[in-house]
């Protein structure tokens, strides 16, 4: 019988990496997609990540999609990596993101977003069925029943390799039935090649990275540009304004917080996915305390209860006497995030470039500008907020005017943390000129006027009174006298208040209608776009992807 080295780093290297021919197999590839059944303490992921870091011929992106019924605690990840000094710092990085792992799909990012872990929590067969990517390697850590193996097979391409420890004879027979040609290995485990006798269904057509034009330099456009550039696209961002982030993304600071609902509805689940991803982007790209702060937020909303998310949901929401505490919340300056994304290598930006029309060409698309110039590209992404509808008349988009009240202060923070509910209040944000509070926002449907209105300042004061009566009392006179400042912007929303992300024609995509949750949804939409373009693991279950699709 073959030697067994169960649960160790040696097993991860010898059984899984070598069994799948890694790292040699991924040399020179743009990306590599690994599917694993059973995450355990994460040694296989850590071993793959370590091999990627050490390989000068590594792929530009490493995707690791793992299915796990019940995640191990974070300290088990660190403990399992104690035997190897090279693995331990990676384990600590992984453990730092190992929170709030409710059933569903979670996207964790490392190495500036070039190593992506898509963790699918729940029943193995169901979670595999919620994915739609093309696996380059399969790690079968746990034994699996035939229906689950058949679901795994749906994600396999002919010739890809699978590795597993020694498994019962029945599992060997099931793997053979699923189209794998298996072979015992000298030291440990089994390896196999997917080579079924039947015709393998081809996956979705993938565009090879080439030239891309993104229309719009707000949160949605900048996020899309950065995600494409990380996938080797040469990206040109065109915007009608003379500077980036001049629309709704020019908000001085916004609140990033998950949506809570009595039935944990679609918006709540989408918001958690987006919040996790934006928090990670902020950690990697922004200056803590200056551009953003993971401050948490207290939700006060007497008219609505929140679903019980259990122990694993505590980082998302915890009931307190004074409201619902969201530990996974932050204030962020949107314009700084836009500029950070536009600074991604491979992205260039041109302002004062108003696009008037998009024309299909062979191959690709031609973009026409108001000054008569033209730009050709293989891929076009329309992310121009309300301007998207002028370029894509089939879209049903709506204007939503928002006015935020704010002012500088030189005393202590007016509240310990941001507060939201019917409106929001940010107590202490560093802005040009000093520290500031911000409160709002109004919600004017169909209103395109961006001039400040005194009546909207008073409306924000009323919202503040319902959230924070004592704070409102301190600020009321200054607001009533018209001495507080105002910021106005027009947001873009869809009829169902969900973003619009998807392909409208081959090579023509849209990412818009972020509404008042641009910070929540922009990066999620961008990564969804990148995943669908390149047959990568999806950052959301298929059902939620369909809820955002432009053709829904």
From TrEMBL:
Gene Ontology terms for molecular function: oxidoreductase activity, acting on the CH-NH group of donors; tRNA (5-methylaminomethyl-2-thiouridylate)(34)-methyltransferase activity
Span of domain FAD dependent oxidoreductase: 213-531
Domain of life, source organism: Bacteria
Alphabetized UniProt keyword annotations: Cytoplasm, FAD, Flavoprotein, Methyltransferase, Multifunctional enzyme, Oxidoreductase, S-adenosyl-L-methionine, Transferase, tRNA processing
Sequence ranges assigned to domain MnmC-like methyltransferase in this UniProt record: 90-189
Enzyme superclass (EC): transferase
Any GO BP: methylation
UniProt entry tagged with the keyword Oxidoreductase: yes
Entry keyword Repressor: no
Enzyme nomenclature, EC number: 2.1.1.61
Transmembrane segments: none
GO cellular component: a single term: cytoplasm
Full protein name: FAD-dependent 5-carboxymethylaminomethyl-2-thiouridine(34) oxidoreductase MnmC
């Amino acid at each position: 019988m073959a030697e067994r080295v169960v649960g160790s780093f040696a097993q991860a290297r010898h059984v899984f990496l070598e069994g799948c021919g890694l790292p040699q197999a991924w040399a020179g590839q743009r990306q590599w997609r690994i599917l694993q059944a059973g995450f355990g303490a994460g040694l296989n992921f850590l071993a793959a990540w370590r091999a990627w870091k050490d390989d000068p011929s590594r792929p530009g992106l490493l995707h690791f999609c793992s299915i796990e019924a019940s995640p191990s605690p974070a300290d088990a990840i660190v403990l399992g990596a104690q035997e190897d000094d090279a693995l331990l710092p990676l384990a600590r990085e992984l453990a730092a993101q190992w929170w709030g792992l409710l059933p569903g799909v979670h996207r964790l990012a490392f190495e500036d977003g070039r190593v992506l872990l898509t963790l699918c929590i729940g029943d193995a067969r169901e979670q595999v069925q919620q994915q739609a990517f093309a696996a380059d390697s399969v790690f079968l850590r746990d034994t699996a029943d035939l229906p689950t193996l058949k679901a795994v097979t749906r994600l396999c391409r002919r010739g890809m390799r699978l590795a597993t420890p020694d498994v019962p004879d029945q599992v060997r027979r099931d793997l053979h039935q699923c189209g794998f040609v298996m072979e015992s290995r000298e030291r440990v485990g089994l390896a196999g090649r997917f080579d079924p006798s039947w015709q393998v269904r081809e996956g979705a057509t993938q565009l090879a990275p080439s030239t891309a034009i993104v229309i719009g330099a707000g949160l949605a456009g900048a996020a899309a540009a950065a995600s494409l550039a990380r996938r080797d696209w040469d990206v040109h961002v065109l915007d009608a304004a003379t500077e980036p982030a001049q629309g709704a993304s020019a908000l001085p600071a916004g609140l990033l917080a998950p949506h809570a609902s009595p039935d944990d509805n679609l918006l709540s689940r989408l918001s958690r996915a987006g919040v996790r991803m934006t928090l990670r982007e902020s950690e990697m790209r922004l200056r803590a305390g200056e551009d953003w702060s993971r401050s948490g937020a207290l939700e006060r909303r007497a008219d609505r209860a929140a679903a019980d998310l259990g122990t694993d949901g505590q980082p998302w929401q915890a009931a307190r006497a004074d409201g619902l505490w969201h530990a996974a919340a932050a204030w962020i300056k949107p314009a700084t995030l836009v500029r950070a994304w536009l600074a991604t290598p491979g992205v260039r930006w041109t302002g004062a470039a108003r696009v008037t029309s998009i024309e299909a060409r062979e191959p690709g698309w031609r973009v026409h500008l108001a000054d008569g110039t033209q730009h050709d590209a293989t891929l076009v992404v329309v992310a121009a907020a309300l301007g998207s509808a002028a370029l894509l008349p089939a879209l049903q988009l709506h204007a939503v005017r928002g006015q935020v009240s704010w002012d500088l202060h030189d005393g202590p923070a007016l509240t310990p943390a941001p507060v939201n509910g019917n409106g929001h209040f940010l107590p202490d944000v560093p802005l040009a000129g000093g520290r500031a509070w911000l409160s709002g926002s109004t919600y004017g449907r169909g209103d395109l006027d961006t001039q400040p209105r005194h009546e909207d300042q008073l409306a924000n004061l009323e919202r503040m009174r319902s959230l924070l009566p004592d704070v409102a009392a301190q600020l009321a006179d200054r607001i009533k006298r018209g001495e507080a400042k105002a910021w106005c912007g027009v947001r873009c929303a869809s009829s169902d208040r969900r973003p619009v992300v998807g392909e409208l024609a081959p090579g023509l995509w849209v990412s818009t209608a972020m509404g008042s949750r641009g910070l929540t949804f922009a990066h999620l939409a961008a990564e969804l776009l990148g995943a669908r373009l390149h047959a990568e693991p999806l950052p959301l279950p298929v059902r939620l992807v369909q809820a955002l699709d432009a053709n829904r």
